[in-house]
Design a protein that fits this description.
Elements (H helix, E strand, L loop, with lengths): L1 H21 L2 H59 L9 H4 L2 E15 L5 E14 L4 E13 L7 E15 L5 E8 L5 H4 L2 H4 L6 H6 L3 E13 L4 E10 L3 E2 L9 E2 L4 E3 L5 E3 L5 E13 L2 E13 L7 E13 L3 E14 L3 E15 L13 E11 L5 E12 L4 E12 L7 E10 L1
Antiparallel strand pairs: 1-2, 1-20, 2-3, 3-4, 4-5, 5-6, 6-7, 7-12, 8-9, 10-11, 12-13, 13-14, 14-15, 15-16, 16-17, 17-18, 18-19, 19-20
Length: 435
Amino acid sequence: MIGAMAVGCALGVTFPTLVSAAVSDADFNALKDMVQQMNGKLQSLEQTNQLDQQTIQQLQQRLGETQKTATDAEQKSIATAQAQSLPRVPIDEATVNHNFQILGDAEFQYVKTSGQNGSFLLADFAPIFLYRAGDNILFEAGFDTTIQNNAPSSSGYSTSFDLSFAQLDYVMNDYVTLAVGDLLLPLGTYSQRGAGWLNKIPDDPLAVDALIPGSGVGAELLGAIPLGDAGKFINYSVYGVNGPGSADGTGNADALDLGGNVGLRSDGVVANLHGHPSGGARLGLFMPFKPHYDLELGISGQSGEWDDAGTHLWSAGVLDAAFHLGANFEAKGEYIISRYGSDDLGLIRQQGWYAQAGYKLAGLNLELPLINNLELVGRYDSLHDGLGTSAERYTAGYVYYFTSTLLFEGDYEFLHSTDPTQPSNQLILQLSLGF
């Protein structure tokens, strides 16, 4: 045991000596410098942290002051509003947001009818006045001024000035507009889209002229509802107007007046010839397939009393269609039926239809003079008036476009009618300007 203790003491004396000999003065000094550098960085971080804490405290103090200022301003605004004794006067939109435009068309027509000399038949000027009285209020009115050659039925020229339509529109929202006044009726689409330079054929279809009214005084709700994002939509209209009346108050079949329910009695007094308005509606579907390719289908109708006694109804229904096949071809047509009771002939049944097409020769891609400005048009129309007269008409012609709104139209018509006073054929030349 004494020997073991002696060996342990010897080892305890020699071990520290070996370790101390392994670490030099240079290494020790480097380690010392490293520790001092780390200590300096630690102190710098502590100082930065103190600055951040001070910045946060300053921002919190400023936020509290801002919130207090906003609260004070809101309280002052409420107090001011409560202290006002007079209501706020709304801004007159008509004085700050108005717009006025004149649109329309003009036509000059030459006609050569079978059995008669050719003549300049008429000059027509039809301006449309548009006024915007605000974001939701619109007004439009159309007039028709015509100078017409009366030959051969009478001498000289006659001048007429008519109000075609006048309506006030209030846009209730994106889908509903209220219109009141003398309205273009949506019985089919021809009456609303048949301005002279838009029609491409100088005269109106037989059935449109004879079977349905073009306008009526009343009120209408109209609009469109989109179907998805592909451009398809449903357009609709629901209306109530005075409707047709009896021209002399008798209720006889030949006294039907499509222009309205105000007429002349047999004693010459102007009177309201029936007490109940007519009601009507149209529902249409527009389906585009790609640019310049689309199809529109519509159904419409109107019904109401027409005689003075209020015992007979007049009703009409219209199916309409329009089709565009590219930028150069279009086709459209309407089928019209009407029924009305009468005092002398009972129930009168009427029907008629027309189909019209046009093709622009620019679609042929022919680099020939004048060809690209030419469009060929054709129409077939038919009428059975229920009073013994029927007619069929074939029309072929062209439209030459000087510009997109200045048109020179030429048409030749072949008419087959049971009315011997109607001409069998006629040539119509017309210069039309849309503006």
